[in-house]
């Protein structure tokens, strides 16, 4: 909702107000304001619109997730690098249902920008492997699937990996 720099300015203003409250001997208000200043700092690193989009995606509500993502007008300037990665990751997940060419671009950009969790990176690479298989690029798909195996430490994608290998044998 707010630009990333505005969030830092808000946190700084709240901290300045907390210091002022301490000098006025209002210790309780100062402590409360310091705790309150943590919220804009947290939202600097975790964009609220991306969080809301993830929640909608968890409910399998793709139009709702797309609605929240569309509210981010200029992701290159409004988001930090990891948030841009997740923005592209979410866009790729939504477009993978309809437009594989654009989804591939979003997934590649998400991997390039970086994702925090290995599981998210594994899902992005698994989707890229599926897109590569549909485009008859077997070598690229094989490479991506081996990378997914390394990233999937909990074994949550084991079924999808084996299914893709079976499909590759049929190619």
What features would you describe in this structure?
The structure is a single chain. Helix 6 (81-95) runs antiparallel to helix 7 (100-113), helix 7 runs antiparallel to helix 8 and helix 8 (118-134) packs antiparallel against helix 9 (138-151). The chain is mainly α and 171 residues long. The chain is built from 10 helices and no strands. The termini are far apart. The radius of gyration is 21 Å and the shape is elongated.
Summed up, what is this model?
This protein has helices at residues 4-23, 27-45, 48-58, 62-70, 75-78, 81-95, 100-113, 118-134, 138-151, 158-170. The chain is an all-alpha fold and 171 residues long.
Task: Write out key terms for the chains shown.
single chain; 171 residues; mainly alpha; 80% helix; elongated
How does the overall form come out from the CA principal axes? elongated
Number of helices: 10
Q: In terms of quaternary structure, what is this? A: single chain
Helix-strand pattern: HHHHHHHHHH
- Unreliable stretches (pLDDT < 50, length at least 5) are none
From the alpha-carbon coordinates, what is the Rg to the nearest angstrom? 21 Å
In terms of structural class, how would the helical and strand content be classed?
Answer: mainly alpha
Walk me through the topology.
Layout lengths: L3 H20 L3 H19 L2 H11 L3 H9 L4 H4 L2 H15 L4 H14 L4 H17 L3 H14 L6 H13 L1
Helix pairs in contact: 1-2, 3-4, 4-6, 6-7, 7-8, 8-9, 8-10, 9-10
């Amino acid at each position: 909702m707010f630009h990333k720099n505005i969030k830092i300015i808000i946190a700084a203003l709240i901290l300045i107000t907390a210091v002022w409250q301490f000098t006025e001997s209002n210790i309780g208000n100062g402590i409360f304001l310091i705790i309150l200043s943590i919220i804009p700092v947290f939202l600097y690193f975790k964009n609220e619109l991306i969080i809301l989009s993830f929640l909608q995606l968890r409910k399998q509500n793709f139009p709702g997730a797309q609605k929240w993502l569309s509210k981010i007008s200029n992701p290159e300037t409004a988001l930090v690098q990891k948030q841009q990665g997740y923005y592209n990751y979410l866009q790729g997940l939504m477009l993978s249902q309809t437009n594989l060419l654009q989804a591939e671009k979003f997934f590649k950009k998400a991997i390039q920008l970086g994702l925090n969790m290995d599981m998210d990176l594994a899902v992005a690479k698994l989707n890229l492997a599926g897109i590569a298989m549909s485009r008859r690029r077997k070598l690229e798909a094989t490479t991506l699937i081996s990378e997914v195996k390394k990233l999937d430490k909990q074994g949550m994608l084991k079924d999808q990996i084996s299914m893709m290998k079976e499909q590759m044998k049929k190619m």
